[in-house]
Amino acid sequence: MVTPLGRTFKVRVKRHSEGDRISSYTTPSDVEFWGGAVLSFDGLEEVPLAAGYRWEAATGDVGAPVISYREGKENVIWAVEVDAGQADAAAPLRYTPIAPPGLPKIDLAASRRDAESGTR
Questions:
Q1: Beta strands of 1-120 (E only): which ranges?
Q2: With left for phi above 0 and alpha for psi between -120 and 50, is residue 114 left, alpha or beta?
Q3: How many CB atoms are located within 10 Å of the residue 12 CB?
Q4: Which superkingdom is the protein from (predicted)?
Q5: Is position 3 within any domain?
Q6: What would the mean pLDDT of 9-25 be, rounded to a whole number?
Q7: What are phi and psi of 58, to 5 degrees?
Q8: Which position among 29, 34, 80, 99 has the lowest Cβ density within 10 Å, counted as fewest Cβ atoms?
Q9: What is the DSSP letter of 89?
Q10: Whole domain around residue 72: which residue ranges?
Q11: What is the Cα–Cα distance from 66 to 19, expressed in whole angstroms?
């Protein structure tokens, strides 16, 4: 799908397990799709999306329809559940936030003090 701004959305249909994990065999098309890193002009990027459903592994049930954006196959940026109850109208989307991993704490001042005093 190409938007009026020139941005292209590529979609793969995938089952989303806990934590919005998806899986697939590593084929050349899989690597190309999730590998990303295609240089382009601003506004002409290709955006890879995964659409599908949430899979309840414990019960074997199909859950809510979901669309997720990720950087690569493993790194989920956001996931949105589609409200299936509104199928006959414009469906409102519910946003499910993804908790980012904790970032490391780097104390550059301590490193500079160590360098000045000659210790490591």
A1: 8-16, 46-56, 61-71, 75-82, 93-96
A2: alpha
A3: 16
A4: Bacteria
A5: no
A6: 83
A7: -65, -35
A8: 99
A9: S
A10: 8-117
A11: 12
- Tell which phi-psi region holds residue 12, choosing left (phi > 0), alpha (psi between -120 and 50) or beta: beta
Identify any residues that bridge with 15 across adjacent strands, giving them in sequence order. Answer: 53
Q: Is residue 2 part of a domain?
A: no
Instruction: Please state whether the predicted TM-score (pTM) of the whole model is above 0.70.
Output: no
- Cα separation, 57 vs 110, whole angstroms: 47
* Residue at 1 is within a domain: no
Question: Which tens digits make up the pLDDT trace of 67-106?
Answer: 888 888 888 888 888 776 655 556 555 655 656 666 667 7
Q: How far apart are CA 22 and CA 15, in angstroms?
A: 6
Q: What contacts 24, CB < 8 A, 6 or more positions away?
A: 12, 14, 30, 73
Is the distance from CB of 57 to CB of 17 less than 8 angstroms?
yes
